[in-house]
Design a protein that fits this description.
By secondary structure, this protein is α/β, with parallel strands linked by helices. The chain is about 35% helix and about 15% strand. About 40% of the residues are buried. The N terminus is likely disordered.
Length: about 600
């Protein structure tokens, strides 16, 4: 009898766990939920984020006023929802309501206004490329069109990316970010190459390797098959106006790591085949017929790409950028494609913005990418994109100086900009910070040389770079620094402003290592020049070797230590005459910029 009473009590009671109740039979009934943030991703998309629970879906409601009538606009089974019917700067209020697996609805959440607790946005700029044609190719009959580039022009783009702190990623990296497996770097850019022409293998790939860059290669499957068959049958591509790669060449590029193989469809890259333009729906076409057609093409694309490279294509580039919201939905829901590359105008922003922390199904998988045309360098597109997006009231130009050490360290684990800087190195985050902010003039394409000693001229050049390379009207020369010295302007600027003064013999000693005390003094003098606060900020504990610090540098050393720019060793010594490695300089510069900005 006692057992029956206990069972009866369990059947009519429930235990409340994390805002949800669990019945005696294990079925959940919804209680409540809370919206944590609503972020404007762009002027036409607001992203809601909340803590979700397993086996629950959430109805999303919206109103124009906090206490007005709320209309259900959608639902989500995850912890985020993208409202693509919102328009900035309109103000909206949102509520969510949990729904359990048995259909029981919970308490409606409190209203939260759009723009509340906005999350950080990650930006990815994508540029569409096509063929890369050399003068020798043109002599051999390859046709140079307005979408084509000379290898030298592509190299200029790659050099611009390196000089300005951009990191090339692939759409595979973007998918990993969406799935929460890795971060995105600041100034992320995707080089998205369409079609599959031979110029990528012969002219672009060697440059990608030289510049440690990566790219998506969106191939037209049937054209690659045709090129391979031609060679297999003993033919040649010589004299063709637009020769294509064959599969074994694509395999080599994929194995190297610079190329991420993607689909440009197998056989739909036709402008008007039986009335269809690329993958666009035809007027009046039944959606189920379209889905069957796209599934068949996807199957063919997978069979050749995966068969040759053992890679499943996750990205599809729209032929001719012909698309619609209906085709987007049909392709993403009925194939294994997770990213759709479109053309300029696919999004309301020029670059592509993503709300950090959204659930995988809360991300917009459609990508905007302008086409890189001959005569218009990559810098033009990037500058135009930043100018356009910074005016929409939502997106702003990235301020990479504000990146924290934690963010830089995490990014560097996956995107270290130099071959000789491991993502696990204690200084990797500082080196990445220096790279993305272009703090190291003259850095090579592949190596940082973290253990090399910093010279006086290199220190002058770095501070000159941080200062924005101000104009030097009449460069000052020294017996050991002449006008033909590449650091002449930096040296002249540094000496004119008493940042790194010459010695008693009026020699600059450009190749001599700069000491720790000299760099502390240089940063102190630079701060004075720029009006940065140099007042003491805390208690100063004297170093055991303080007597070794010159009187003219002592105040600067104390300031640098108080500010957290420098620190001593484990034995309580400052080591004022010690030399600095480039790795140490990277850490000091990151400390200097971040600490003096506080």
């Amino acid at each position: 009898m006692k057992l029956k009473k206990i069972m009866a009590a369990l059947m009519v009671s429930a235990t409340i766990i994390q805002g949800f109740s669990i019945s005696a039979y294990g079925a959940q009934t919804a209680s409540s939920a809370k919206i944590s943030s609503i972020t404007w991703q762009d002027p036409e998309n607001a992203v809601l984020i909340w803590d979700s629970e397993p086996n629950f879906s959430y109805n999303i409601y919206r109103s124009d006023t906090k206490d007005g009538s709320y209309t259900m606009i959608g639902s989500s089974s995850s912890g985020s929802y993208r409202d693509n019917t919102a328009y900035y700067p309109n103000v909206y209020y949102y509520k969510i309501q949990p729904v359990s697996s048995n259909g029981t609805t919970g308490t409606m959440s409190d209203a939260v206004m759009s723009g509340t607790n906005p999350q950080k946005l990650s930006k990815v700029t994508v540029l569409m490329y096509h063929n890369f044609i050399s003068d020798e190719d043109i002599k051999n009959g390859v046709v140079f069109e307005e979408y084509s580039l000379k290898p030298a022009d592509f190299e200029a783009d790659l050099q611009y990316f390196r000089n300005n702190g951009y990191t090339t990623i692939t759409s595979a990296d973007l998918i990993n970010y969406i799935n929460g497996q890795k971060p995105l770097p600041a100034k992320a850019i995707i080089i998205s190459i369409d079609d599959g022409t031979l110029g990528v293998y012969e002219n672009a790939w060697p440059l990608l390797k030289r510049y440690r860059a990566k790219a998506d290669f969106n191939v037209i499957g049937e054209n690659i098959d045709s090129a391979w068959q031609t060679i297999y049958d003993g033919g040649t591509r010589d004299g063709e106006s637009a020769p294509y790669c064959q599969w074994n060449e694509i395999v080599k590029m994929c194995e190297s790591g610079e190329i991420n193989i993607c689909s440009h469809t197998y056989g739909l890259h036709h402008y008007n085949r039986d009335g269809r333009k690329g993958t666009a729906l035809m007027e009046g076409e039944d959606i189920n017929s379209f889905i069957n057609m796209i599934k068949e093409d996807y199957s063919l694309a997978v069979s050749c790409i995966n068969g040759w490279t053992n890679i499943m294509p996750k990205t599809m580039a729209y032929p001719y950028s012909r698309r619609s919201s209906e085709s987007d939905k049909a392709i993403l829901e009925n194939t294994g494609y997770e990213i759709l590359m479109a053309g300029d105008g696919a999004r309301p922003t020029s670059s592509n913005y993503f709300v950090d922390g959204a659930s995988p199904d809360g991300y917009w998988r459609l990508i905007n990418r302008p086409c890189r045309m001959e005569g218009h360098p990559a810098s033009e597109y990037i500058n135009n994109a930043d100018a356009k997006d910074s005016q929409n009231g939502v997106n702003t130009v990235e301020n990479t100086l504000l990146l924290t050490n934690e963010e830089c360290t995490e990014i560097a684990k996956f995107y270290s900009p130099f071959e000789d800087v491991s993502g696990e190195a204690w200084y990797s985050g500082a080196v990445y910070y220096g790279y993305v902010n272009s703090l190291f003039p003259g850095a090579t394409l592949t190596n940082f040389f973290p253990d090399s000693v910093v010279s006086r001229s290199a220190a002058a050049a770095t501070l000159y770079q941080i200062a924005g390379e101000p104009n030097v009207a009449d460069a000052k020369t020294f017996d050991d620094v002449q006008l033909n010295n590449p650091s002449i302007n930096a040296v002249s600027w540094a000496t004119d402003n008493n940042i790194i003064p010459p010695d008693e013999s009026n020699l600059f000693n450009p190749d001599e290592p700069i000491t720790r005390a000299e760099l502390a003094l240089a940063l102190y003098q630079y701060s004075t020049l720029k009006g940065i606060d140099i007042k003491p900020v805390g208690a100063y504990k004297a170093f055991s070797d303080e007597s070794s610090i010159s009187s003219n540098a002592l105040q600067a050393v104390r300031w640098a230590v108080e500010r957290g720019i420098f620190s001593g060793d484990d034995n309580g010594k400052f080591l004022p005459n010690g030399e600095l490695t480039k790795a140490q300089l990277a850490v000091i510069l990151q400390n200097f910029i971040q600490k003096t900005a506080e």
